[in-house]
Amino acid sequence: MKRFEILSKRMLNDNITWLVISAPLVARKAKPGQFIILRTDEYGERIPLTMAGHDSKKGTIDLIYAAVGRTTMLMDQLEVGDCFADIVGPLGKPTEMEGLKKVCVVGGGTGNALAYPLAKGMHDAGIEVDMITGFKNKDLVILQDEFKAGTDNLYLVTDDGTAGEKMFTTVKLEELIAAGNDYDEIVAVGPPIMMKFTCEIAQKHGIKSIASLTAYMIDGTGMCGGCRCNIGGEDKFVCVDGPDFDGSLVDWDELIQRSAYYSDQEKYDREHVCRLTGGVRYND
Amino acid sequence: MINLQREKNPMPEQAPDVRNKNFLEVTLGYTEEQAINEALRCVKCRKKPCMDGCPVMVKIPEFVAKVAEGEFEEAYQIISETSSLPAICGRVCPQENQCEGVCARGVKGMPVAIGRLERFVADWHAANYGDEEIKPAKGNGHKVAIVGAGPAGLACAGDLINKGYEVTVFESLHKTGGVLVYGIPQFRLPKEIVAAEVAKLEAKGVKFETDAIVGRAITVDELIKEEKFESVFIGTGAGLPSFMNIPGENLLGVVSANEYLTRINLMKAYKDEYDTPIMHPKRIAVVGGGNVAMDAARCAKRMGAEAVYVIYRRSAEEIPARAEELHHAIEEGIIFHYLTNPVQVLGDDKGNVTGIECVKMELGAPDASGRRRPIEIEGSNFVEDVDYVIMSIGTKLNKLILDTTDNLKANERGGIGTDDKAETNRPEIFAGGDAVTGAATVIKAMGAGKTAAAGIDEFLSK
């Protein structure tokens, strides 16, 4: 196996891809909730991605991503046998599981892919796991078989009702709490706005909430400070203090604002790359 | 024959109005004639204060004498006895506080331009002998791990490989060089020079493992117990950027100097072919007065900013930046607000920075650092219209290694605790550079790396 070689590639739907990559140094210590930073090639930016899984014995890690930005679109051009220029990790603190008996994991959109290792990790650790997976429509639904195997109860909801029940994840969560489920913790993984509402529901019912945050960052070791966010009035770095934080302490409005900082530039880049080259720039 | 000229030979450099629009090196280096003429200014004084002023004790009078004779390669060999990275030190050392600060010629007139001569010698060697074959050193069978490929780690690796150790350097970033590549800009230290120094170490047999984060992927204890390294040197650098904790600091357009510089230097955001996102703001405030602040301000100008303000709370007298950087920054059109301190960053309803509110300061009695303490002048607040703010007010120490290494003790600053031989409370573990002292200089880090190499050699020779 070459360094950071892609060993398998599987399209989960039109937009979401599951890669298994050789990265023994990362895999040997990886834990659910941790992330890596990768670079596709010499010209690529460094982007953080939460690991969707890993196999310490085989020395591989799993990445599930949606091709939404320049780097992830470039990643889609890579095939089995191709290699990433760089993958560093595991970064961030692993998700805390100690003392938990029953949790509800709520995943939104691509966030479901990142919620998968958390749910499975907790399930494997003997914690009772309810999981709500929410998507816009049936075409975007992913990983239902994996989730079924990795949770105690799985609930599928879509915004338009084309798969599972027609409702938002937050409504399902309210339902499950109202039905008497006694959760020690609610874990939210997805778009910031969805995590915000999920954590607010948890708070309303006096349940601890954990949100797995993503942010712009460069090094992933605390050096750049780009990923700082306001947690309970204090600045914390997502890369070293997180990525999991108590959802009731997160300043969601600030986080949502900060997470869109480069969106104009990204939009331009996206069009720029594809218009010029169809996604691939360097063939050497 | 001594050259009695009082002034240093001026350094050829790009004109300010030209260079503040490109990332090419600002200073061009002495010609052979200029170097010889400058070297002849050395009066060969008996006390050699310059050597004591140098953290790695370069044999300055000896190499300068060789330059004066036109024996440039011999001069290089003399420097190489003690310094592993002269092309870098000649460019980035704060010579005015070190060798040149105590030079006898500086009493009346300017000191000998030791830094410029060091750079000349290193560049001359690279141009004339750069492709010479380097033979790997003869091994002594001992394995040493170095954590961090910055100046401390590279200096330590250089000394150890020369002594025959099997050396592996672990680096968390994708590129070696540490602050030399992510922090110091291309126009001050071309990255090709750092790459050449690293290549030299590789040719001698040093192994570099990039993308390897010690403390997470593998711990220091695992390096010792599982990977059988007999000694470990920790040179992981300064760590987390400090912020001021003033209102508005998380607005869009407030970044740390570390982030801004890393995007530009390591991630080459100034080159079109790189994907790295970066903003191109028009009016920028840089808060702080160190070398990092100067680098950020000068990069900002080169990235197309119309106005760049350096906001520093003390006066021009106390500014910690290297004299040459300050001089260059002023020439390039950076505007300095001395005795000024930000009180809040202002933003619009979308969260974008629109200005920085500052207060004027005056200097009071000296504080613990010996410098006069700045005090706010009440009612002197004013707003500078800016759309971007770069915080460059120092760093806090990163705890990763301390938190993940068994029984490794911290010092009173929160860095890794060491004695003056760079040895920690664990006899097989050594540490040095910013990871121990907090933010300091490249040459001090190199000095610490060399001290540690000597300590490791002593420890493993027992």
TrEMBL record, chain A:
Transmembrane segments: none annotated. Residues 1-97 form the FAD-binding FR-type domain. Its cofactor is [2Fe-2S] cluster. [2Fe-2S] cluster binds at C224, C227, C239. PROSITE patterns: FAD_FR. Keywords: 2Fe-2S, Iron, Iron-sulfur, Metal-binding. Pfam families: DHODB_Fe-S_bind (PF10418). The keyword Ribosomal protein does not apply. InterPro entries: Cyt_c3_hydrogenase_gsu, Dihydroorotate_DH_Fe-S-bd, FAD-bd_FR_type, FNR_nucleotide-bd, PyrK_electron_transfer, Riboflavin_synthase-like_b-brl. This is Sulfide dehydrogenase (Flavoprotein) subunit SudB. It comes from Aminicella lysinilytica.
Automatic annotation (TrEMBL), chain B:
It comes from the Bacteria. PANTHER family: GLUTAMATE SYNTHASE [NADPH] SMALL CHAIN, GLUTAMATE SYNTHASE [NADPH] SMALL CHAIN-RELATED. This is Glutamate synthase (NADPH/NADH) small chain. Residues 143-449 form the FAD/NAD(P)-binding domain. InterPro entries: DPD_II, FAD/NAD-bd_sf, FAD/NAD-binding_dom, Helical_ferredxn, SudA-like. Residues 19-127 form the Dihydroprymidine dehydrogenase domain. GO terms for molecular function: iron-sulfur cluster binding; oxidoreductase activity. It comes from Aminicella lysinilytica.
